[in-house]
Structure formats: structure tokens, C-alpha cells
Design brief:
heterotrimer; A mainly alpha; B alpha+beta; C mainly alpha; B: 6-stranded mixed β-sheet; 5-stranded antiparallel β-sheet; elongated; C: mainly alpha; 12 helices
């Protein structure tokens, strides 16, 4: 026992500051937030009472939350995750076998990742502008100039699909990342395996289907989990895009405005708790799987 | 260099890994001060675990480990006065050769001048003088191996531990360095425990060799004794190259009968009056060309391997192959790995070492003779050696 | 990709397939560069020439006037972000290095479980800690200034920096650390003399990643700082975040705000990518 303490002790001591900080700022704060979500805190002074699940049931009856935020974020998540996966996968597939100029293309697809969501939103807000006639601009203008009469009425129009348009800047920002993930996965397939399949008579598509595809499943899982959790918690992209537009309202935005503009702390905490629940359902199995897979 | 070597004693040492795998079971081993011993066995036999327990890198589940008179069972590796040479050499990549060699002394607070003196001295011995300012990445495999040795020697430890230190060298260099290791040990006289899976390395290096299998000590003796008088089927099959030949046999009426042959037991054999099943073991070197007065055997060569001044004649006997856990463990690198290319060959195959100038018949049978005094007998059920084989050199000696 | 690949025998359709691939890659590259084009031409036009309707047109004359207009408004935010992002990335990388070393090479029972607990902090929606954070920072007086912002970036950066260093040290041979132990080195000596000297690549990955995320963060900045301490993202949003702001000024501000991370990406893209990969765990 003494030997064990002497062997492990110093390491534990070294990481203790980090562990304490994370214990407070992650787990302590999450618990604290849960506590706030079952209080009636409204306004400046914290309330320490207990109202049970009242804030949650109130959200259930809250049209902004149930009619707009939840369907909005669900729609956005589906469009964004599917779109970024498809685009990222296509890019990786195009680059996989290598060709001159690959490095340049890869850099072009990846650089939006380095730009903040705020700047991304500011640029794209102008690109997605849906002025008509004389004031046509942005992408619509570009397509019109190119002779393509393709007019979007997604954004800022009455369409329920407005939020799906935000998947465009979000996908612009992150599909290069998905590409990198897939590319790493594809390149991780040993050349021997592909060559063995070629010698066995498989053509390129069948090599992909029978040899490469099965090995990409973990990558696909990683990509889906990462994109989905980003989608759920993203705040600044929507905020800078058009903060007071109900068509692109999400739980993350609602939480911010109701808490820090409206002073409805308890309601904000309840929304945040539901967000945490949503993220945790994808993330916890993912972490559990990753750490277990690594141990094997 | 003056070192005071200390002995090593393992008393009932066991190691159980998480998940309940017993890597080492109830091991007793005493190494005399200044002795060079080798731990040998197939992969997974526990030899590396034993070494790592002596180093303190692995916790001991049961039993005690003593270095000299000190019980170090509960001591951390950094507090035991041992030096270790690793299979990968484990040279610190960002340090020069000089700093690599001096690191252990620095950690133990040896003054700088003393460090420099000792590094210089060892570097001269090993011919590393001109490499002292290089980084490990700029060294060849053989040079790295020498630096790893040097780093251990500089420490002047009570014990050297070596974990397959030659396995990353190419085959020819390995043979050269092997011989120099023996010389080095004669010069330094430090107690050394050396781990290898290669029985030739074990036989050539060790003053005594401990053969392990499945975490249990099979036999701990001089190389000669291991070869001449293996205590069981596993040691017999593991030690010696080419390996000992085995065939199921019956002893009755003062002779041993196998595959249609019958050979008279030597006079006075303890088995002469027995009537029982055995496994007969014959070393390839116990064969000779026909006509030297030994037992004659007519065989049909299946494969002939030319080695220059000798040749191995492989022939099949009309008897089933001896295929026990012990023989399988001895031939495969991984325990229980069935690596036969032609598993449908189920007959017992023998290898006989014969002189290269012996004329072989173009086809048909070849008669060879077999030394009846060099037959080994094993119990088919337990695998234990039966009396009646060659005597241990310690007991009777040639 | 490899020399071997280049010499592969190709089918006779290969040239057409290659052309098709280039065409596809080029079209997609245009999609990715389109916003940059709009950004650049707008920012470089003189203010009089700028018109939203003519945003795709090439400028008649290059002009830096837009930058001259917006720079004074962004300067403070820029400075604040530098003063915040640099210490945040250095400190959380140093702590991450220690954590990663212990969790990979000086493991204690339950290390994997502790690691999983740490990792979870990387994925939480920050909305779920905002209210307690706001209260704590207000109570301790850390809200308003940069120190509090640095603190939260350090702490919430720990999971990813720990992950980066743990993965890096996991790739270091076990025997290296064992050799140090046998040589008499304890935990701190092994970390300082053996692990740290080989860790510069991991430091590059970790610092770049942390710098980029701290620079690009908006949520913590807007929650924890007051006007004169706004980081660049908050300042940018307040300058350019409404339709009422002139189009050219919005674009010029966005460009200025992106410059540091874009520079890092262009100069150190290789490490940036490795940071991305670390974020995907090793599933």
C-alpha cells in the first residue's frame, strides 16, 4: 500500500490543481445550474427556493421553445450534419488517391475553420441577403449574374426553412474538418490491404466498398458526434447572423436572452439543462466507447 | 572498476495481472553474486515479468525479492540500485550520448567531476569516445546498443538487468556482440540477469539458465545439464537446435519399440525390466552413418538439408507425431500458435545430423545408426523425464 | 500520395477521371473561396465605390480607406484579445502537458475514468455553466477584466490540451520512462528531463489550438467583460453586427479580426490540423 502511494502519489498531486478546477468549473457549475433550474430565480437577486420541475413544465407550454426553438435546432442539426458529412466525405473521396495540388485544395477547404463564427456570420449575412429586384445581392445576385435564375427565399422570408440556410455558413466552416477526418481514416487503411484486394480482382469502387468503407465507420461516428454537439451548443453564429429573428431562434439563443436580457435565470437554467441533456446523450456513449476502444 | 556484486534471491514470487492472468507462479530463484544467469522461454512464459519485478517496474503479487541482504519487494525502481538495458535501448532522444550515460548518476546526485570521469572511462572501454556529443538518432543500431550498455555500466550498479538487448541487431552482429558480452561480464563481474527467447543465446551466455514456461520454473541449471539431462518434455524440446526428435514408444523385454523398430536398451538401464508406454526422445546428433556398431535404422529420407560440412536428413516414422502442449509450446514463438504449413502431415518426423560426405542413395531406404546411450525417455502423461536417459553431467559426468 | 501510387498502372479512362476530379475539386474550391472573394474585394474598394448590389464586382482602384475607418474601433478589442489569448494558451498548454504526462505515463488506478471525466468538459454546452460562472465571477470580482476571461479559457481549455498531450505521450515508448525510473528519476524528473524535451510538437499543436479557440470565442467574452475589455469578437459584433453598419466597414472589420488566426493557419497549418484530429479522440 505504501509502495502504491509512493508510486502514484506524485502524479496525482501534479494533476490535482487541474482536477480541482475542472471539478468546480465543470461538474460543480453543472450541478449549480441544475439547482438554479429548480428555483424561481427571476431578476437580480438569486432565489434559493425549490419549485420542482415548474420551469421545465413551463417550457413545455412555452410556444417560443416548443414551436420554434426545438424544431429549429432539430432541423438545423439534421441539415447541417448531413450536409457537412456529405460535403466533407465528397472532398475526402476526391482527394483520397492523391493528385498534384492536393495540398492547395486541402488548405482551401480547411481554412474557414480558423475563422470565428462571428466573422463567418458577418460575411455570410451579406451573402444570404434576400433582397429582390433592384436590390438583389449576395449569392442570389451572383447566380443571377451568371444567368442562373435561382432565387432563394429561405432567409428572413416567412419560410420555416430559414434556419436551414444557416447550415450553409456552418457547413462552410466545418466540412473541411469532416474532410480531414475522413481523409485520415482513408489513408489509415494499409496500402497492403488495398493492393491485396486489387490482386484479388476488385476494381476501385469495390475496393472502396469492401475494404475502405468498413474501416471508416469509427470516423463517421466521430464526425457525427462532433458535428451534432457543435450544432446543439452553437450560439455566436446565430447571434451574429440575426439575433432577434424568431425564425432562426434556438435553445442556445433563447437561454442567453431570457437569462441575461430578461433576468429569467431559472428558466435559462432549465433550457441549459435540457441542452446539456441533449449533448450528453450523444457525448457520454461516445467518450465511453472511445476510452474503452483505446484500452483494447 | 571495483564493484561489489550482490546476489539476488526470489522467494515464492508470484505475479497476477488484472484480469486474473498468472504471469509468474511461486518462483524461487537464487543468483550468486557475480553470476550471469539467463531467463529463457517462449513468449508469454513470464521471463520479462520476472526481470521487471527485479527492477521494480512491476509490482509483486506475492513473495519477496532480495538484492544482497536487502528486501526490496516494496521499493520503487528509482530506489533500487539496479541498471537495465532495454530491448529498444530506450535512449533519451533529446540528450547526447554523454548526457544519456550520465543521467543515472545525475539523478543519484553524483558530483559532476565524478560523473565526467566515469562516463569518459566507460566510453573509452566501449569505443564511444568520438560519439559522446551525438544524439541517439545519429547513431547506428550497434552504436545505440553500446550506448545502452554504457549507460548501465557507468552506474556501477549492484545488478545488471538485460531484456533481450541483442534482438534489434542483425544476425551477424548479434553473434559478435554475444561473445563480447561474455568478455565484458568477465571483466566487470557484475551479477547479471539476462532475458531472451532465443535458446542459443541462453546457452552461449548463461553460466546458469532458467527455463520458464507459463510462469513456472522448469529447470535452472548449467547449459550443459539442460542439454544433456532435461527434466521434462518441454525443456527437452525447447533446448537444442535442431530440436530433439520425439516418437511414442513401448518398453518391453529390455528393448524400446517404436514405429516397427526395436532397439535394445543399454545394459543396466533402470528401465530394462519395465513394461510401459513412453515418449522416446533422440537428439539429431545421436545419429551416425550406418555401421558404427550402434542400433541400425532403415529410413526413407523425405527432405535433405545441406549445410556444407554436415547435412540434416529428415525422415518420417510410421508412428503418430508427438503433439502435446509441451512440444507445441516449445516450437512456437507464441504459446499455442499452430504455425504448421502442412498440418495434414501427422506422422512423427525425425531429423538426423549426418556428415555431408556420406553418400545418399538416389531413392529407397537409407540405413542410419543411433546411439542407444543417448536416448531420452519421458512419461507420456506427465512429460517428466524417466530415469534411464543420459546422466546429468553434475551427477555422473562424462 | 506515394511514389508507388504514382507509378500504378492506370486504366485508359484514367485521364478523363482525373479531369473530372479536378473539375469537381475546382468547383468546390470556388464555393469555399466565394466569401473570401466578396470579403477581399469589398474591403479593398474605396468607400464611395462600395455598394451591396455590386458586391461581386472587381474594384476600380484598390484602397485601404476601409481599414483606416474601422481600425480605431477595433484596436482595443484586438489588443485585449492578444493579451487574453496568449496567456490562456500558454498556461492551459503547460497544465495540459502535466496532466497528459500523468494520464499517459505515470498512471494511477482509475486514470482512464478520470480522463473520461476530464474529456466530458470539452463537450459540455457552455450555456449550462453560464449562470454559475456569471455569479462566481461577479462575486470574486473577476468579471469585467481580462483576468477572469483568461481563467475560464485556461480551465475550459484543459480537456483538449490534456487530450493532445496524453495522445502525444501515449505514443512515447514505455521503456523510455522505465529507463528513467531505473536510472533513479522520480515523477517530476521524468516529466522535466525526459517528457518535456520531446514535447515541442505537442506544445505547438496545443498552443495553436488554444490560441485559435480563445481568439474566436464570443460567448465567454460577451458574458465576462465590459466595454473597454471586450475581446475582438465582441468588438467586431458590435461594430459590424447590424445591418445598419456600412457593408464595406463590416467586411474590413471581419477581415482584420480574422487575420491572426488566418496567419497562424497559413504558417502553421500542419499543427493546426493535428489539433483538429486530436479533437476527434481516437474512436
Amino acid at each position: 500500500m505504501m509502495r502504491r502511494i509512493r508510486a502514484w502519489g506524485p502524479g496525482l498531486v501534479l494533476i490535482l490543481p487541474s482536477l480541482i478546477a475542472l471539478a468546480i468549473f465543470v461538474y460543480g457549475f453543472l450541478g449549480w445550474n441544475l439547482r438554479v433550474s429548480v428555483s424561481s430565480w427571476r431578476g437580480l437577486a438569486p432565489a434559493h427556493d425549490f419549485v420542482g420541475l415548474a420551469n421545465y413544465t413551463a417550457l413545455w407550454d412555452d410556444l417560443r421553445f416548443t414551436r420554434f426553438d426545438v424544431p429549429n435546432i432539430a432541423l438545423f442539426t439534421v441539415v447541417f450534419v448531413a450536409g457537412a458529412l456529405a460535403l466533407g466525405f465528397a472532398l475526402a473521396a476526391l482527394l483520397d488517391r492523391g493528385l498534384p495540388g492536393e495540398q492547395v485544395f486541402r488548405s482551401i477547404y480547411l481554412f474557414p475553420m480558423a475563422i470565428s463564427f462571428i466573422a463567418t456570420a458577418i460575411i455570410w449575412r451579406w451573402l444570404l441577403d434576400n433582397g429582390e429586384g433592384e436590390s438583389t445581392t449576395g449569392i442570389n445576385k451572383l447566380f443571377a449574374d451568371a444567368g442562373l435564375a435561382w432565387h432563394s427565399d429561405w432567409f428572413k422570408s416567412g419560410s420555416r426553412w430559414a434556419i436551414a440556410a444557416i447550415a450553409l455558413p456552418a457547413g462552410w466552416s466545418l466540412s473541411g474538418y469532416v474532410m480531414s477526418l475522413f481523409l485520415a481514416g482513408m489513408r489509415g487503411v494499409p496500402e497492403d490491404l488495398r493492393e491485396a484486394a486489387r490482386v484479388d480482382g476488385a476494381n476501385a469502387p469495390r475496393v472502396f466498398w469492401h475494404v475502405v468503407r468498413p474501416m471508416l465507420l469509427p470516423v463517421l461516428m466521430s464526425a457525427v458526434v462532433i458535428l451534432a454537439h457543435i450544432s446543439l451548443k452553437t450560439f455566436d453564429l446565430f447571434y451574429a447572423m440575426d439575433q432577434k429573428n424568431i425564425k432562426i431562434d434556438t435553445p442556445a439563443l433563447y437561454m442567453w436572452f431570457t437569462t441575461f436580457d430578461g433576468g429569467f435565470y431559472a428558466r435559462g437554467a432549465a433550457i441549459a439543462a435540457l441542452l446539456l441533456l441533449g449533448v450528453a446523450t450523444v457525448i457520454v456513449p461516445y467518450i465511453w466507447y472511445s476510452v474503452r476502444a483505446e484500452r483494447r | 572498476m571495483i564493484v561489489k556484486p550482490s546476489g539476488i534471491r526470489l522467494e515464492g514470487v508470484g505475479k497476477r495481472f488484472r484480469g486474473g492472468v498468472d504471469a509468474v507462479r511461486d518462483l524461487d530463484l537464487a543468483v550468486a553474486p557475480g553470476e550471469f544467469i539467463v531467463l529463457v522461454g517462449p513468449s508469454g512464459c513470464g521471463k520479462s515479468t520476472v526481470l521487471r519485478m527485479i527492477a521494480g517496474l512491476e509490482e509483486v503479487t506475492s513473495g519477496r525479492i532480495l538484492l544482497g541482504d536487502t528486501d526490496v519487494t516494496q521499493e520503487l525502481p528509482q530506489r533500487r540500485d539496479v541498471a537495465m538495458v532495454f530491448q529498444s535501448y530506450a535512449l533519451y532522444p533529446r540528450m547526447t550520448v554523454r548526457k544519456n550515460m550520465a543521467f543515472g548518476l545525475r539523478m543519484r546526485g553524483t558530483p559532476r567531476t565524478e560523473r565526467d570521469r566515469r562516463v569518459a572511462e566507460v566510453a573509452r572501454t566501449l569505443g564511444l569516445d568520438h560519439l559522446l556529443e551525438r544524439r541517439p538518432a545519429a547513431l547506428s543500431g550497434g552504436q545505440r546498443q553500446r550506448v545502452a550498455m554504457g549507460r548501465a555500466i557507468v552506474r556501477e550498479p549492484r545488478v545488471f538487468l538485460m531484456d533481450e538487448p541483442l534482438s534489434n541487431l542483425d544476425a551477424k552482429l548479434r553473434v559478435t556482440v554475444r561473445a563480447q558480452l561474455t568478455q565484458l561480464h568477465q571483466r566487470l563481474g557484475v551479477t547479471t540477469v539476462y532475458v531472451t527467447h532465443d535458446q542459443i543465446e541462453a546457452m552461449t551466455l548463461g553460466q546458469r539458465v532458467a527455463v520458464l514456461r507459463d510462469g513456472r520454473l522448469q529447470q535452472f541449471d548449467t547449459p550443459r545439464a539442460l542439454f544433456r539431462a532435461p527434466v521434462n518434455l518441454f525443456v527437452a524440446a525447447f533446448i537444442g537446435s535442431p530440436a530433439m526428435n520425439f516418437v511414442p514408444a513401448q518398453i518391453a523385454g529390455g528393448e524400446v519399440r517404436f514405429a516397427g523398430h526395436a532397439i535394445a536398451l543399454p545394459l543396466g538401464s533402470p528401465l530394462a525390466g519395465a513394461d510401459r508406454r513412453v515418449i522416446l526422445g533422440v537428439r539429431p546428433t545421436a545419429f551416425a552413418p550406418a555401421g558404427v556398431g550402434w542400433a541400425q535404422l532403415a529410413v526413407t529420407p523425405a527432405v535433405v538439408e545441406e549445410l556444407g560440412d554436415e547435412r540434416y536428413v529428415l525422415f518420417d516414422l510410421d508412428a503418430p507425431r508427438v503433439d502435446t502442449d509441451a512440444t507445441r509450446a516449445a516450437v512456437s514463438t507464441r504459446t499455442g500458435d499452430d504455425a504448421l504449413l502442412l498440418p495434414d502431415e501427422t506422422r512423427a518426423r525425425f531429423t538426423a545430423r549426418l556428415p555431408a560426405d556420406l553418400a545418399l542413395p538416389a531413392s529407397g531406404p537409407l540405413t542410419v545408426s543411433m546411439d542407444p546411450s543417448r536416448l531420452h525417455f519421458f512419461d507420456p502423461d506427465t512429460g517428466a523425464a524417466l530415469p534411464g536417459g543420459p546422466e546429468s553431467p553434475a551427477a555422473g559426468g562424462p | 500520395m506515394t511514389a508507388r501510387g504514382d507509378r500504378r498502372i492506370r486504366s485508359r479512362w484514367a485521364p478523363y477521371a482525373l479531369t473530372a476530379r479536378y473539375l469537381a475539386l475546382f468547383t468546390l474550391a470556388c464555393f469555399f473561396l466565394m466569401p473570401v472573394y466578396a470579403l477581399l474585394v469589398t474591403a479593398l474598394k474605396s468607400p464611395v465605390e462600395v455598394s451591396v448590389v455590386r458586391m461581386w464586382q472587381w474594384p476600380h482602384a484598390l484602397s485601404l480607406d476601409n481599414f483606416r475607418i474601422v481600425w480605431p474601433k477595433l484596436r482595443d478589442g484586438f489588443g485585449n484579445s492578444v493579451m487574453m489569448a496568449l496567456p490562456a494558451s500558454v498556461i492551459s498548454s503547460l497544465l495540459g502537458a502535466a496532466n497528459g504526462f500523468v494520464l499517459a505515463k505515470w498512471r494511477f488506478p482509475g486514470a482512464d475514468f478520470v480522463f473520461a471525466l476530464i474529456l466530458f468538459g470539452m463537450f459540455i454546452p457552455y450555456q449550462a455553466v453560464l449562470i454559475p460562472m456569471f455569479q462566481t465571477m461577479s462575486y470574486t470580482g473577476l468579471r469585467g477584466g481580462l483576468a477572469g476571461l483568461v481563467l475560464v479559457h485556461v480551465i475550459y481549455g484543459l480537456p483538449i490540451t490534456t487530450l493532445i498531450f496524453r495522445s502525444y505521450f501515449a505514443g512515447v515508448s514505455e521503456e523510455l520512462i522505465e529507463a528513467a525510473k531505473v536510472d533513479g528519476a522520480g515523477m517530476l524528473a521524468s516529466f522535466a528531463f525526459i517528457a518535456l524535451p520531446i514535447a515541442p510538437p505537442a506544445f505547438a499543436v496545443s498552443m495553436i489550438w488554444q490560441f485559435t479557440s480563445a481568439w474566436n470565442d464570443f460567448l465567454f467574452g460577451v458574458l465576462l467583460t465590459t466595454k473597454d475589455r471586450w475581446p475582438i469578437t465582441v468588438a467586431l459584433n458590435n461594430i459590424a453586427g447590424s445591418q445598419a453598419v456600412p457593408f464595406n466597414e463590416a467586411m474590413a472589420s471581419a477581415l482584420l479580426a480574422c487575420l491572426p488566426t488566418l496567419l497562424v493557419y497559413i504558417l502553421l497549418g500542419r499543427f493546426f490540423l493535428r489539433g483538429l484530429m486530436a479533437g476527434a479522440l481516437k474512436g
